[in-house]
Amino acid sequence: MSSTAGKPIHCKAAVAWAAAKPLSIEDVEVAPPKKGEVRVKVTYTGLCHTDAYSLSGSDPEGAFPVILGHEGAGFVESVGEGVTEFKEGDSVILLYTAECKQCKFCKSGKTNLCQAVRATQGQGVMPDKTVRFKVKGQEIKHFMGTSSFSQYTVVSEHSLVSVDKKANQQKTCLLGCGVTTGFGAVTNTAKVEEGATVAVFGIGCVGLAVIEGAKARKASKIIAVDINDGKESWAKKFGATDFVNSNKLGDQSVVEKLVELTDGGLDYTFDCTGNVKVMRAALEACHKGWGVSTVIGVAAAGQEISTRPFQLVTGRKWQGSAFGGVKGKTELPAMVDAYTDGKSPIKLDDYVTHETTLSELQKGFDYMKAGDCIRCVADMSK
Ligand SMILES: NC(=O)C1=CN([C@@H]2O[C@H](COP(=O)(O)OP(=O)(O)OC[C@H]3O[C@@H](n4cnc5c(N)ncnc54)[C@H](OP(=O)(O)O)[C@@H]3O)[C@@H](O)[C@H]2O)C=CC1
Ligand SMILES: N[C@@H](CCC(=O)N[C@@H](CSC=O)C(=O)NCC(=O)O)C(=O)O
Ligand SMILES: [Zn+2]
Ligand SMILES: [Zn+2]
């Protein structure tokens, strides 16, 4: 048993005290895990666009002060009463989409959206409605059931998965959100078939993973759409066959351009921007009769999507995907093994374009906005 088991741990964490304010590195007290909980030493965390979105104050579930971060990997430090699935030293990936294998959702065979801890997760508290973080006596909220911007975090036993200890956590942390989300949206949610035509809007980490998923599915055409010419080489490196800068089409709309390029529209489109106008274009660029558009991007509070119902009447379908439809406990261990064995269709290493540390975590948000960052990963030990 670790020498810290059962005791509070004092460590560093990046705290978001208020919306749209820089993170502040604080000494945080992390309480021991209670029944059904696990305390994790976080080694690496990616910074996802959703962290920036929540920090901005656009998330209707956003609550402050909070420790953000949800793309984390680390080691189990100690477990709470009744936890048998994990032990000290296990290499783990945090799961913002939990998997309990018991709830109606887990048992349905129709969704990965486990609801075991979702309600309290959205309120920023543990399932018993209390928190495990304090700074100078003040309670700090949890985020997405994970809070990976802390050197130690406490999560529900449903919100982490044990993976091969050999795996490089600086890379596998990305399987906790962005990469799995994009790849899974193609393979699990849309189930793109060989020969299909695909368009991907927004070439960040999620969009590139959609491209890799489409390539793995042997799509015949993969059109990347972005407003930044710098994304063309990224898209092509990951498998896109074509690139369209939607801001450089003159009088032609992006829908018209895509319909022209594909003899009537795409079999599958994916929104990876979170922009509701782009979501509409992604739907309307689908082929009449069968095209399917998958919304992945997260839109700010108050935003709504719209289209003419005729678009749906004439056979286009709109759907969404969270965490790529992936069940974390069931599917991530094999994805990690494929990566460590060099057999994965996912070029995980290539997504990490920037590195930072916990003490300079804020820099990661600056990199994210600069347009040349696919993923920034923070070393939580420094
Ligand atoms: N559903 C889910 O489970 C998940 C959803 N998300 C969401 O997915 C989205 C993508 O995340 P992530 O890849 O991390 O984000 P990024 O910011 O890295 O990528 C978004 C990309 O979209 C581009 N873009 C912006 N506006 C447009 C536009 N009008 N048309 C085309 N491209 C545009 C951006 O260009 P530029 O470089 O110029 O900014 C950028 O390249 C976010 O909304 C995020 O919150 C993320 C993870 C999981
Ligand atoms: N809290 C927001 C919704 C945010 C959201 O859509 N989250 C995605 C994951 S984004 C990851 O980077 C998701 O999986 N949603 C499913 C869920 O159950 O949260 C809001 O209230 O609008
Ligand atoms: Zn994310
Ligand atoms: Zn469940």
Automatic annotation (TrEMBL):
For this protein, the record's SUPFAM superfamilies field holds: GroES-like, NAD(P)-binding Rossmann-fold domains
Reaction catalyzed: S-nitrosoglutathione + NADH + H(+) = S-(hydroxysulfenamide)glutathione + NAD(+); S-(hydroxymethyl)glutathione + NAD(+) = S-formylglutathione + NADH + H(+); a secondary alcohol + NAD(+) = a ketone + NADH + H(+); S-(hydroxymethyl)glutathione + NADP(+) = S-formylglutathione + NADPH + H(+)
Q: Sorted alphabetically, which keywords does the UniProt record give?
A: Metal-binding, NAD, Oxidoreductase, Zinc
Q: Which EC numbers does the record give?
A: 1.1.1.284
Which InterPro entries does this one have?
Answer: ADH-like_C (IPR013149), ADH-like_N (IPR013154), ADH_3 (IPR014183), ADH_Zn_CS (IPR002328), GroES-like_sf (IPR011032), NAD(P)-bd_dom_sf (IPR036291)
Which top EC class applies here?
Answer: oxidoreductase
The residue ranges of the Alcohol dehydrogenase-like C-terminal domain are: 206-338
Q: What GO MF terms are annotated?
A: alcohol dehydrogenase (NAD+) activity; S-(hydroxymethyl)glutathione dehydrogenase (NAD+) activity; S-(hydroxymethyl)glutathione dehydrogenase (NADP+) activity; S-nitrosoglutathione reductase (NADH) activity; zinc ion binding
Cofactors needed by this protein, per the record, are:
Zn(2+)
Tell me which GO cellular component terms the UniProt record holds: cytosol
Q: Please report the stretch or stretches of sequence annotated as the Alcohol dehydrogenase-like N-terminal domain.
A: 35-163
- Fetch the Gene3D superfamilies from UniProt: Medium-chain alcohol dehydrogenases, catalytic domain, NAD(P)-binding Rossmann-like Domain
The superkingdom of the source organism is Eukaryota
PANTHER family (alphabetical): ALCOHOL DEHYDROGENASE, ALCOHOL DEHYDROGENASE CLASS-3
Family, according to the entry, reads as follows: Belongs to the zinc-containing alcohol dehydrogenase family. Class-III subfamily.
- Quote the protein name from its UniProt record: S-(hydroxymethyl)glutathione dehydrogenase
Q: Which organism is it from?
A: Ceraceosorus guamensis
